[in-house]
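Entry 14. Structure prediction run on the chain below.
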Amino acid sequence: MGPFSVDLNGRVALVTGAGAGVGRAVALVLAASGAAVCVCDVNPDHADQVTETIQAAGGRALAWTADVSNRFQVGAMIEAVREQWGALHILINATTVIKPAPLLTLDEYDWRRMIEIDLTGVFFCTQLAARVMSAEGGGVIVNVVRLSGEGSAAYTSAQNGVIGFTRETARGLAVEGVRINTVAYDHTLDPTAAAPVVAFLCSQAAAFMAGQTLTVDGGRG
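Output returned:
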């Protein structure tokens, strides 16, 4: 039996935080699996580079710059994806902002920034994408978080918030035909280690999985 593969031909995916790290790895895997991918990153150069890599390999990609903590920018991005390809089937929330700091010296600005981007951004993207998906026959959402907060109470709070958000919203979204799950990965591993797991959750092989958190840590946990 050959290696596990995913067929996402005809699917349209939006990946946030896709300019680098695990988001980039996920965008490349989804594109290689046949999906058209909107590569979203706050850094336009990074988004362009990943998009060009996908296109050079024969895939379909669209670069988009957006701050996921801004609801209006998220809405504009989703509409741009629909205008480009006519639908949105997959959302991967992989944007991560982390700034380690001891609690006693943690700056309020950094706390708010990490919560707004790492947690509120997931809420904005999920809510707006799920509205589109529910109206168009369903879809898949995967939230990607790190296993370690690297000494950041703010990031760890956001990360656990995402896991709880996924679990809490899964039943209601399932009624709308939308599956939502989380992948928690060890960032010290190669970023590509988590990407196939994300692709699996996007596939029909995971059609009955919702509200789950899959851990990718190489047995280190």
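Strands lie at 12-16, 36-41, 61-65, 90-93, 139-146, 178-185, 213-216.
Filed with the rest of this week's runs.
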